[in-house]
Amino acid sequence: MWLINTDTFKLEYVMNHVKGSYAILSHTWEEDEISFQDFQDLRIAKEKAGFAKTQQTVWKAGCMNLKYVWVDTCCIDKSSSAELSEAINSMFRWYTDAAVCYAYLSDFPDRERIAKLHPEADGPHIKRLQSTSFARCRWFERGWTLQELLAPDTVKCYDSDWNLYGTKTTLEEKISRVTRIPVGVLRKSTPLHQVMIARKMSWTANRKTTRLEDTAYCLMGIFDINMALLYGEGVKAFIRLQEEICKQSSDLSLFAWTAPFDDIDPLAPSQAYRGILSASPAEFKSCHTILPYQGRSYQGEFRMPNRGLCLEQLTLRAYHGSISLGLDWYDESTGSAQLAIDL
Asked: Known Pfam families for this protein (predicted)?
């Protein structure tokens, strides 16, 4: 693990990092970020726009007497596929082990700028405008920042001028409303492994990644999955992720996704007939309110051989000639009875 020494401002390779010995940055990537190679020569690094947030992160960590800082732009040698794979497979743990995570929201204007844009606004109005701007930040729309919110114990949120706006704890109600993540999960009083798979998938339904494969790779830590990175495989990456989840869990909500209708032909074969696995986290968008039905959960086994899905001890219910697979969950928002999947 490459870390920036806060005293020397140089990269050091630490084989076995000590939990709580470093700060970590969460941000959205922009133009002119500094790379691992750039950081070898600070004269080059300082010329790039991305250097400023790295410098601020190092300064803030130094003020907390932390020896190291980790920043994803310059602490991974992305020219090495092996190092990139190790970093992505380890990233959730790295964020978990950090003493503090600084979330830099570059598109979140500071209070002074908001006041200048709205000279007629009084104090309470400016506070509301700031809250609205916070909720609209790009940081809530990116795939990778989901685990960067969930993994660390302490997350400090900064505006574009590096003023502290609040922490994950003080802002938990706002963050919960924006992300639809329960406050208990943000507090870690509800462990991630106790949350239904479909509900966790729904948290990333509206998030985007630059590369299609990262839609799956950014979720590996949240589901405690390790797998090889194969950039170029496209949507197959998300299929592979679900296959790996199948090997570790018997949570049937993995199959609770809903395919979008074809705007031109709702009954087009491409939408009318699909495999059992989802093509995208976006298809779990409506699953943020599902809960186990009457506290039950499927205790049988399911597995995926080379063709199809094998299930044990499940009831298939027939209605008017159709067959449905009964599931042990219901929709909290509607209070509906036990739900099922049409087969």
From this structure: DUF8212, HET
